[in-house]
Design brief:
The complex is a heterodimer of chains A (about 290) and B (about 325). The longest helix of chain A has 17 residues. Chain A has nine helices and twelve strands. Chain A has two domains: about 80 residues, Gyrase A, domain 2, CATH 3.30.1360; about 200 residues, Cyclophilin, CATH 2.40.100.10. By secondary structure, chain A is an alpha+beta fold. In chain A, the strands form two sheets. Chain A has a seven-stranded mixed β-barrel with strand order 5-10-8-9-7-6-11, surrounded by five helices. Chain B has four helices and 20 strands. In chain B, strand 16 and strand 17 form a beta hairpin. The radius of gyration of chain B is 20 Å and the shape is elongated. The chains are: A alpha+beta (about 290), B alpha+beta (about 325).
Chain lengths: ~290, ~325
């Protein structure tokens, strides 16, 4: 994997590790951005890892773009050899699939969708050859997902499914983006799922909602008082399908600020994962469920 | 010491020079879209250049002052009126307790910067007072102003003076936005690249602090490829990546969008390159339907243009005795 570097105007260097998505590309991007952070290069103002790429923002009054470019290129060798493992967290995200709010929204934007006569979940089940919505929800929620990028809007995680490529769920984005998406919608576009942290525009298919806030600019939510954004790249997520009653109870707990998310420490090694995905995921579930 | 909002205008927000350092979480830099005008307004009223001001777009608010202060309005030509009497833009003027500031119709540009001595003293959030409305962060309660809001003011000595016309900067007609090609430029054909610079575009109605959309040019032809895994099926799709400020994405290959101060930090559309830092202010002064062209420059030209802007800021400081 050879990184393609490009200037983004006079204030950014953009680096594409790979054209296609893979956890290998993600880990190279993460080790590059960690190396840039550790190097403490003068003039570097923002370091942003992404799914299979990364971006450095800099102040060209403090460092010449060509000098920074040389410095980044010199780090590539070490980054690609670094150990792709993480001390991270696994967290459970409750999801009410087929909820009334995303349903109301998707009906409003049917003319922007590939199949105006089906819901987003029905369409996703069909294009993935899974037959029914129930089968699709099972495929979506049975295995963990890896946070490979945070962004688009504040605190939104992009999630990559931790299964063999041929089993990964893929659904095209809407033909034209919607102007509205309910807050905390579970979305999916291409091979990525996401959680919309705020209400707003979006092009991903909508599958459900979580009652659990993931971004709080007021920093009042008990687990978002230190950091406004819950997710970091490298976090691992397990969706937990819930009923409407369970969803309502969780909302009540959130409103009383006594909702406690299930978040456990976990380790992840890409080498071990690639050798034995089912075994790695089973161990992650043990870490989550405390067994 | 406060400013009371009698009517809010179309979308008036508190802005300073922004909130760098959180883009990796999807929180953009925000801050004034026309930073030169914002700095000038602050200098005129004796504030730090980066103090918080009000940014009004297309239409001014109506404000009432609870104490004496100095005020200056810069940026787009949105004529201020003090108790109904017109005042000059780009010039400091005093106000008394009980005075009302309103605005006439916008004559040119798109955004006006209203600075008050002492600065708008809303709480700092992540190191800035700027409003990021999409994330309900910063400014006054994380949103655009509403009638009935009351904004606290800091303590300020006040200032005086005016900025002569030759030190102001507004886009031409058509606006020329200098751009450094790069990023995913290789995804389009050479002919499409040539046409992109030859076309005169028009600002679309979808133009805001997140980004400016342009229409009326030629759709892009892409270099054929098998779409990479995870990218999506449209030739304009890429595996979701970070978006630079000023980057020009072209969803579906039809209408370019230039991301601005409240940029979405990433997404799955290919980008042709970036409008250079020296020309970002100009975009903030473009109205919908106004014509614009993209002009190809090299990195050396981009850096020279940046140095020119720094020199212009130096002349402004010199003129105002800063």
């Amino acid at each position: 994997m050879s990184i393609r570097f490009s200037f983004g105007g006079d204030e950014h260097i953009f680096a594409e590790v790979s054209e296609e998505m893979s956890l290998e590309a993600f880990f190279t991007s993460l080790s590059m951005t960690n190396a840039v952070k550790a190097a403490g290069i003068k003039g570097v103002t923002e370091i942003c890892p992404a799914n299979a790429s990364f971006q450095i923002k800099f102040d060209p009054d403090r460092i010449l773009p060509s000098d920074l470019m040389k410095e980044l290129q010199s780090m590539e060798g070490a980054a690609s050899k670094s150990d792709a493992s993480l001390q991270t967290r696994i967290m459970e995200i409750p999801v009410l699939y087929q909820d009334p709010w995303t349903h109301e929204t998707l009906m409003r934007f049917r003319e922007r969708h590939q199949n105006p006569n089906a819901t987003d979940l029905e369409y996703a089940a069909e294009v993935n050859g899974l037959g029914t919505v129930e089968n699709f929800i099972k495929a979506h929620s049975s295995q963990p997902w890896f946070v490979s990028m945070v962004g688009f809007v504040a605190g939104l995680p992009f999630l990559y499914q931790m299964v063999e490529r041929k089993r990964q769920l893929q659904v095209p984005k809407y033909l034209r983006p919607r102007t509205d998406t309910p807050k905390l919608t579970i979305g999916h576009g291409g091979c990525f799922s996401c959680i919309y942290s705020v209400r707003g525009a979006g092009g991903y298919q909508m599958f459900g909602v979580t009652p659990m806030p993931i971004y709080d600019p007021t920093q009042k939510v008990s687990y978002l008082q230190d950091e406004m954004c819950l997710f970091k790249p490298g976090d691992i997520v397990k969706w937990k399908p819930v009923t409407r009653d369970e969803y309502d109870a969780a909302i009540e707990a959130v409103e009383a600020n006594r909702f406690e998310p299930v978040i456990r420490p976990a380790t992840f090694s890409l080498t071990a994962f690639n050798k034995d995905m089912a075994g790695t995921n089973a161990r992650l579930m043990e870490a989550l469920n405390g067994r | 010491m406060a400013v009371n909002v009698i009517s809010p205008g179309l979308s008036t927000t508190v802005q300073d020079l922004g909130r760098p350092g959180y883009y990796h979480l999807g929180i953009p830099i925000s801050g004034g879209m026309d930073r030169f005008a914002l700095r000038a307004a602050n200098m005129l009223v004796g504030n730090d250049e980066g103090a918080a001001v009000l940014e009004a777009v297309f239409m001014g608010p109506e404000l009432e002052f609870t104490s004496a202060a100095t005020v200056a309005v810069t940026g787009g030509d949105l004529p201020p009126k003090l108790n109904g009497d017109e005042r000059n833009t780009w010039e400091a003027f005093p106000v008394k307790a009980g005075d009302r500031l309103s605005f006439g119709y916008l004559k040119s540009g798109a955004r006006a910067y209203i600075a008050v001595s002492g600065g708008i003293d809303v709480p700092m959030k992540l190191g800035s007072r700027s409003t990021y409305t999409l994330g309900a962060l910063g400014g006054h309660e994380g949103r655009a102003l509403k009638a009935g809001d009351s904004l606290p003011l800091g303590k300020g000595a006040g200032g005086k003076g005016a900025v002569p016309a030759n030190l102001r900067r507004m886009p031409g007609n058509p606006a020329e936005l200098r751009m450094l090609p790069g990023l995913y430029w290789h995804r389009i054909t050479a002919a499409a690249g040539k046409q992109f610079f030859a076309d005169t575009w028009k600002v679309a109605p979808e133009a805001d602090r997140i980004g400016y959309r342009f229409k009326g040019g030629t759709a892009l032809d892409f270099v054929p490829r098998e779409q990479p895994f995870g990218a999506g099926s449209n030739p304009s799709n890429i595996v979701d990546a970070c978006y630079p400020y000023g980057s020009i994405q072209v969803p579906g290959g039809t209408e370019p969008i230039v991301l601005h101060r409240d940029a979405v930090s990433g997404g799955g559309y290919m980008m042709l390159g970036c409008v250079i830092s020296a020309d970002m202010d100009l975009i903030g002064q473009l109205q919908p339907h106004s014509p614009a062209r993209f002009v190809e420059v090299s990195m050396d030209q981009a850096l020279a243009a940046r140095a020119d802007r720094l020199a212009a800021l130096g002349r402004l400081r010199g003129h105002l005795g800063r």
